[in-house]
Amino acid sequence: MTGADLGAGALVAGLVAAICAATAGALAAREQDERLLAAARNGAYVVAGMLAIASLALLAAFVTHDYSLKYVVEHSSRAMPLQFVVAAFYSGQQGSLLYWALALAILSFIAIRATYDRLRRIIGYAIAVLMAIEAFFLLILTFVSNPFERLPVPVPDGQGLNPLLYDGGMLIHPPMLLLGYASVAVPYAFAMAALLAGRTDADWMRATRRYALVAWAFLGAGNLLGAWWAYHVLGWGGYWGWDPVENSAIMPWLALTAYIHSVLVQQRRGMLKVWNMALIIATFCLAIQGTFIVRSGIISSVHSFAQSSIGPFFFAFLAVVVIASLTALISRLPALRSEDRFGGVVSRESGFLLNNVLFVSVAFATYWGTIFPVLSEALSGVKATVGAPFYQQVNGPLLLALLILMGLGPLLPWRRATGEQLRRSFVVPLAAAGGSATVLVILGLRTPAAVVALAAAMVAASTVVWEYWRGVRARARSTGEPVPLALGRLVARGRSRYGGYLVHLGVAFVAVGIISSSFYQQEREATLPVGGAVTVGQYTLTNLGVTETLAPGARTVTAQLALAEDGQTLHTMAPAKVFYENFDNQPATHVAIDTRRLEDIYVVLAGWAEDGTISLLVAVNPMVSLIWVGGIVLVFGTVVSLWPERVASPVRLRVPERIAVASEA
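^ thats the sequence. predicted structure below, dont judge the formating
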């Protein structure tokens, strides 16, 4: 038996175990049968083991260059560096589905172990839902898109990766995004279990909060890494083009962001229960829909895979999920009534409700723009195009409102706000916004929309600083601790709250980067002979000539450009095109980027001639680096929020049966 045979057998065994575990879990929950529940739990563990074996078998096939497997031939070659051979595991359809199934199996294993005793009344249904999802993926992997499918005759070498994937981003972006998709299934499964069991309190939310945050962090980081990858590799001068596949990745994140905020209201006031169930259902459905769009080929995109046979299966699965979820939700509406009422129009609760409405509006607008070309073609025969201007005009105002709400919402009190409370809370962030707007105008920024948006970002950032300062000052005064110690202990004892503030600060940084680069980008296209120059802003690029280098499996054409600022030569920039073996018609773009004082000089080699003449795209993009810095802050804030609280462990003391006293001695 070969490793591939072992992997294929593990998929079949995993499918059988998943079906059995799902059935046992549902029956155990309905009949309250402990033996069936234990069997369901053990079945889920078996699924995780089988998927681990299958994944290791496929990885071994790539590393050992087993070119008897069709999937290995299509996505690797002997000339590829080892790190890209490993990354080829998830570079195609079969491998990425196997990776998703493995991630979900491991997360299910962890979640079941952690909640088996704590959520005894719903854990059976949760196992059933998780294993039903696993069974679907394993069904596809076993019978429709099997990574262990063999060729009639082995070949000596493979085709290699798509040239666009030869980048460090390939090593981290797809795994993070796929892990985010898989993580969403855990809170969704427990939400469905709560509905099926009629346990609509907040216990399941508290137990699965970390999984929702993990999913949110991986989806957010995956989207930011995707933007970074597009900026460095695709060579069109930007980082987010509102492409259908980009939209498919951002929509679950938007819905999950609303959910993570909204559950706070249910946990504190017993409100927004229907909202919370609907949001987590929407998040999971959007994650499945994203896979359908990427895999089906129904929407053209530079990111999507070629049309495949699994699109209809995902569409059918999505339809089943939507119908089953809505049926469960509607059947439990009487049990999802709010336990309290809104105390006032201006309150923390109202802020969270508005937050839900805005996030859902952005997600719906993005969904409509993504799916409209398909509907247009189906209804009229004409395939319409929805470009970036639509999303900017519709989502721009909504995102601006969210940015302002992110700054002011945390300052609102629960139940009802008085005028005096609002004045005391809002004076600092509003003063910071007004001051920053004034400074921007003095510095020469005259675009009203940009000034307002940057001022809104300042509201969000200043609120974080203000809340940290107020907390540190109060603790230092009450305990006498030095400010650094007071800061550390303040965060340690309120990790969820202050980690969330750091996330808001990261989002503010990202917003400043997006706003600045969107409104104030300078861009030129130029054709330069040897010695010719082009000027963009205060920067001048001079063509020094073209070089060509050969390496095993690749040919690289590089333009040598002298970069000067205000007449002073700085150094050389070298944008390039790389032609990989078997992909001569798909050259990879190597963008030259030089970051100076928070602005990027961005150069793309578009074409060249034998006499050394080159065609360039040159852009000066301000503040783009703040997007990546903000992403790091955002991830760090999430880690702070997720870090376990220190819990005092009980200590047993042995007390003597009889203690002698002085009078007895």
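Residues 264 and 352 are 9 Å apart (CA to CA).
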